[in-house]
Specification:
The chain is 62% helix and 0% strand. By secondary structure, the protein is an all-alpha fold. Helix 2 crosses helix 3, helix 2 packs across helix 15 and helix 3 packs across helix 7. 51% of the residues are buried.
């Protein structure tokens, strides 16, 4: 699950200052982790807490997102999610924001079958993003991770997404000049999936996502989870990303290591 974290960190300094080229330093002192990383690890913690029995995963997701997220109140939460985060009675709010897809990668890594991946995705998503587009964006992302884990090639993955989720009839070079910041699943997930599908390796996926612009830390978090499952992650990039998680006694880093050890 280091892939989405790398994408998030690399994109953090460009989210509101887009750089639509691929020639940038991936890890910079100006980089930081955002809510994408925090919530990805919260979902991982929720899945771990279930010990393989996902009957109560939705409640575990609420508990862990509160527990982990409240430690980082200024990491970039959106307004509605922030209210949910600090509510004593959190309820789903019909969101179709891309936050559902940026945090779902643990479901794609832990799910043992395609149906289980979809079940896990739904259970961790519906607690906030219960709009059909929010559910769909998360599920499409988790499914791509699972298919990549299973060794399916890009043609198979593209066809599966085209048939079941989105029509991927876009090319990154064509949409880059006019692509704008958009926090919806509908205008983030297909683009992020295309970034992965056009990439040649993990690092190239990072660079394509950032060069696209828009909400690039989230696009990269989505795409790089799939890229991790498909390509693996270079050791030097892993080590660089982990350094950003060492604050607070390595709280987030410990969740990551525990989750990866359980896979």
């Amino acid at each position: 699950m280091i892939g989405p974290i790398i994408g998030d960190i690399a994109g953090s300094r460009f989210e509101f200052h887009n750089y639509r080229h691929k020639d940038f330093v991936i890890f910079s002192p100006k980089c930081f982790f955002t809510d994408d990383t925090v919530m990805t690890l919260a979902v991982a913690k929720a899945i771990l807490s279930c010990n393989g029995d996902y009957t109560n995963l939705s409640q575990a997701a609420i508990d862990c997102m509160h527990e982990v997220g409240r430690k980082y109140p200024f990491c970039g939460f959106g307004g509605m999610f922030r209210k949910w985060m600090f509510s004593s009675n959190p309820q789903p709010y019909n969101s179709f924001g891309n936050g559902s897809a940026m945090r779902v990668s643990p479901c794609g890594f832990f799910g043992r079958t395609l149906d289980e991946v979809k079940e896990l995705s739904y259970k961790v998503t519906c607690v906030t993003h219960n709009h059909p587009e929010g559910i769909k964006g998360a599920e499409a992302t988790a499914v791509c991770i699972f298919l990549a884990r299973e060794g399916k090639d890009k043609e198979y993955i593209r066809d599966y997404i085209n048939e079941n989720y989105y029509k991927l009839d876009l090319k990154i070079d064509d949409i880059r000049p006019t692509y704008k910041f958009n926090e919806t699943c509908q205008e983030t997930v297909p683009q992020a999936l295309e970034c992965f599908l056009e990439s040649t390796d993990f690092e190239d996926c990072v660079r394509i996502c950032i060069s696209l612009g828009g909400d690039c830390d989230t696009s990269a978090a989505i795409a790089c989870g799939i890229a991790e499952a498909y390509y693996g992650v270079p050791d030097d990039m892993r080590r660089s990303a982990e350094k950003y998680l060492e604050k607070d006694g390595g709280y987030l880093l410990n969740i990551l290591r525990e989750a990866e050890a359980a896979l």
